[in-house]
Amino acid sequence: MDREEFERIVQKRKKANAAFDFHINICNALGCIALGSEKVKSQLEAEVKARGLEHRCKVQGVGCLGLCGSGPLMAVEPDNIMYQKVRPEDSGDILSHLGTSPVERIVLNKANPFFARQHKIVLKNTDKIDPSEIESSLEAGAYAGLLKVTTEMIPADVIKTITDSGLRGRGGAGYPTGLKWGTVAKMESRTKYIVCNGDEGDPGAFMDRSIMESDPHRVLEGMAIAGYAVGASAGYIYVRAEYGLGIKRLKRAISQAEKMGFLGKNIFDSPFSFSVELRLGAGAFVCGEETALMASIEGQRGNPRPRPPYPAESGLWGHPTLINNVETFANTAPIINNGSEWFANIGTEKSKGTKVFALSGKINRVGLIEVPMGITLREIIEDIGGGIPNGNQFKAVQTGGPSGGCIPAAHLDIPVDYESLRALGSIMGSGGMVVMDDTSSMVSVAHYFMEFCKEESCGKCIPCRVGTDQMVQLLSRFLNQEATLDDLKQLEDLCEMVSQTSLCGLGQSAPNPVMSTLRYFRDEYLQCLATAQPV
């Protein structure tokens, strides 16, 4: 496919869609499907047909609309109306109100801070495109970035653009993306690989899952651009097998992209060729660690290995390998299309762009959000999230999953960026954000996450295998009010030992929830001491 044919396909799709007076987009992501959105779509399609509106009104399933706790969600354009908790029996009223006032009982104000305070880059098209139709993605701009790099840029220019943008890895530690790409590009090897880490295992996290379900072509395009930049001709997407809908849509997207020539041989009539395969994980949390993930792709047990060598030097089957997570790749095409300066002007000095978060827990508005780096925790929780339900008070927010920490109310006004969160004993992580109110026991929270890490430890190294088990036992003593001051000291010593001597990131970060709760909620541990113990 050349540029002329590509642009012809895009314009044809745009012209076809422009013929409709109304577009009704129904959330077809997993959260809304679980609440019945497919039945709503079927009933609405039947009602449109019964009223003879097929040529005026287009009904389509789209990706995540964000406010997951109020699904099924629906957006009506050009009326600029959104509906929440839609039922099949609402279909008639919705059609009767097209072009007029909304149906008041289910209307959702789009001026709601949940929507108004967001800045969407990664999620920009999720509420507009049908993730099962490649033409829908093309209309929204898919593969324009890949066309640009393969026909107008050399690999070094692509890497420079990503570097200058300031994009950092969205999967954990925030390593500079351009630096990682540049390292792989410099490796002298005829065989290189791209790996997309979609093994999202943090409790309360659903960012990457939603992206894969809602805009799979954006992920594929980002991988192909990376392949062009570093000299790789093959890529793998590693997805946990529990993500059935995301897997289904990724498989379809790969097939569609291959048929249209966006993946495969001589993409856009250039010398560049790139293929993508799916690999399914069996739900092992440790396989989110890059060396364990590669071992799993190779068909081995998903155990981490010591570094160096790093994957950029010796990764899959001993070849240089670039590993980024889903959200990192999803940022790539927008940066190519809009330029590095555009992206670098969003966020803070050291944390550029936006970040997608899964907002959950004791909060009024549960859902998927994308906000500029540097926004405060208070703005996220009180403005976007709508505060704490049932008149309770905010107590803490846990960021970064089992690897993160719990941040108390005293620090609600800190900016959300890599350095600020790390200074408080937490991390950005992949983007889970679990809110707790004043009914939550922080010792119980620490016990839950430590038990999770204990169960998910691969057992390869003693500090993690034994240390996490001992910490679970100690935390259980606190919960049973059997602990002593010696137990408290031993718990602190174990945190230090496990974090400093474990082989991989799972063990090294496993004590974080315990250390952060000891730091900010030490009084709750003291209250759990055996009654005979002096405090």
Instruction: Work out the helicity level.
Output: 40-55%
DSSP, total strands: 14
Spatial order of the strands in the main sheet? 2-1-3-4-5
Proportion of residues in β-strands: 5-15%
Looking at the structure, the CATH topology of the largest domain is: Rossmann fold
Assign the CATH class of the largest domain. Answer: Alpha Beta
Radius of gyration: 24 Å
Distance between the termini: 74 Å
Summing up helix and strand content along with how strands pair, one would put the structural category as alpha/beta
Low-confidence stretches: none
Multimerization status = single chain
Tally of separate helices: 23
CATH superfamily descriptor of the largest domain: NADH-ubiquinone oxidoreductase 51kDa subunit
Number of domains: 4
What do the pLDDT scores average to?
Answer: 94
* Outline type: globular
CATH architecture of the largest domain: 3-Layer(aba) Sandwich
Largest sheet: 5 strands, mixed
